[in-house]
Design brief:
This protein is of the alpha+beta class. The protein is built from three helices and six strands. The chain is 56% helix and 13% strand.
Length: 166
C-alpha cells in the first residue's frame, strides 16, 4: 500500500512538472508572438503619426519651446562676468554700468544693468533691463542715458589711469 501511494505521488508530481513545462513553453511561444505584434503595431502607429500633417497645437508648442530656448541662450550670451573681462574698465554712474575698452578708450554705447551686469535692451525711446521682474522692470529713457554717457566720457581718462574714485 505504501509503495502504491508513493507511485501515485511520483506520477502526480511528474505530470505536474510536465504540465508546468508545457505551460511555460506555450506562454513563451504565444508571448513572443504577441510581443512581436505589439511592436509591429507600435511601429505602424509611429510611421502613421510621422506621416500625418502636424496639428496646430503641436506647431504652437514647438514654436514656444524654441522661443524659450532662444531667450535662455540669448540671456546667457548677453550676460557678462565682469571679473573675467580684463581688457575693460567699468564705470558706475547713475545706476548704470559702462564698459570701456582699455586699448581703444572707446565706450560701449549700450549701458549695462548695474544689478545684473549685462547689456540692457535698446527700445525705441528707452533702455530696458530684461532680467528685472516685470513689476520692478528697470526702464531708462534714451535722453537720460545720453546725459550719463557724456558724464562717463569725461571720466574715461581718470578711470583708465586708476584715479577715479568708486
Amino acid at each position: 500500500m505504501k509503495n502504491l501511494l508513493l507511485a501515485y505521488i511520483k506520477k502526480f508530481f511528474s505530470d505536474s512538472h510536465n504540465a508546468i513545462i508545457a505551460i511555460i513553453l506555450a506562454s513563451l511561444i504565444v508571448g513572443s508572438g504577441s510581443v512581436y505584434l505589439f511592436f509591429q503595431s507600435l511601429w505602424i502607429g509611429l510611421i502613421n503619426t510621422l506621416q500625418s500633417p502636424t496639428p496646430l497645437w503641436v506647431a504652437i508648442v514647438l514654436v514656444l519651446v524654441l522661443y524659450v530656448w532662444f531667450c535662455a541662450k540669448t540671456k546667457n550670451n548677453l550676460a557678462y562676468s565682469i571679473s573675467n573681462l580684463k581688457d575693460y574698465v567699468f564705470i558706475e554712474e547713475e545706476g548704470l554700468l559702462w564698459k570701456i575698452d582699455k586699448m581703444t578708450r572707446e565706450i560701449n554705447p549700450t549701458p549695462l544693468c548695474l544689478k545684473h551686469q549685462h547689456e540692457m535692451l535698446e527700445l525705441k525711446d528707452s533702455y530696458l533691463c530684461f532680467s528685472c521682474k516685470s513689476t520692478s522692470r528697470k526702464i531708462i529713457s534714451k535722453e537720460k542715458v545720453c546725459l550719463v554717457r557724456k558724464i562717463v566720457l569725461s571720466q574715461i581718462d581718470a578711470a583708465l589711469d586708476g584715479h577715479l574714485k568708486k
